[in-house]
Amino acid sequence: MKGIVFTSFISFLENELGLIETESIIIKADLNSACAYTTVGSYDFKELLHLILLSSQSFKITPKHVSQRFGSYLFTTLTSSSPQYVKNKHSCFELFETINNVIHMEVKSIYPETTPPRVHFKRISSSAATLHYQSHRCLGDVMYGVIEGAGNYFNEKLLIERNRLNKKGSEEVFTVIILQ
Ligand code: HEM
Questions:
Q1: pLDDT band at 107 (very low <50, low <70, confident <90, very high)
Q2: Domain 91-178: which CATH number of 3.40.630.10, 3.30.2270.10, 3.90.1520.10, 3.40.50.12780
Q3: How far is the CA of 104 from the centre of ligand 1 (A)?
Q4: Segments making up each domain of the chain, as ranges
Q5: Is 92 near ligand 1, meaning CB less than 6 Å away?
Q6: How far apart are CA 178 and CA 180, in angstroms?
Q7: Which of 60, 101, 118, 177 stands the most exposed, by the fewest C-beta atoms within 10 Å?
Q8: Ligand 1 atom with least separation from CA of 139
Q9: 16-61 tens-digit pLDDT
Q10: pTM of this structure
């Protein structure tokens, strides 16, 4: 997995919990990588899951809620590192319709070893759409937060509903309604 998701999680912890608490979580996690990832390096995503689990004790919220909060932060990291994808877009739906065929496709062509999630966008009306998420990493909670982050970015209030298509969560349909 590209290191940007991992390094973004570490900076999320630093921002939310401070440097000392983050350091103590990293030491407790005893990761093989010793956190020596760069934004363009690759890493084992199970280490991310381990850090989410450990940090939920410090946040005093469930791992699911840590993942969602992180997703929102990740959106900011991704758009700051690649502003060209949000430039000239006026709504989150305009961005969402480019995830599969533009954004993640370009990511894949630049870094062939990555496997970005498939996110199939389908517009139902001007204010409603579905995002069909498929990933072996089963990061639907992070996905939820990324959608929220996009709503905040475009100043759109979103109603997000999720429907898991299988037990492990490798496939989910998110229905998104823009309320205002
Ligand atoms: C704004 C520009 C974006 C860029 C540059 C970008 C790029 C990336 C990259 C590099 C990864 C890591 C892939 C890997 O490690 O194999 C990733 C993962 C991910 N992306 Fe995007 N992305 C963007 C927008 C979005 C949007 C708008 C969504 C959903 C609404 C999204 C959903 C996700 C999720 C959920 C992951 C986590 C990995 C997984 O679930 O398997 N991304 N993205």
A1: very high
A2: 3.90.1520.10
A3: 7
A4: 3-60, 91-178
A5: no
A6: 6
A7: 60
A8: 40
A9: 999 999 999 999 988 776 656 666 556 678 889 999 999 999 999 9
A10: 0.93
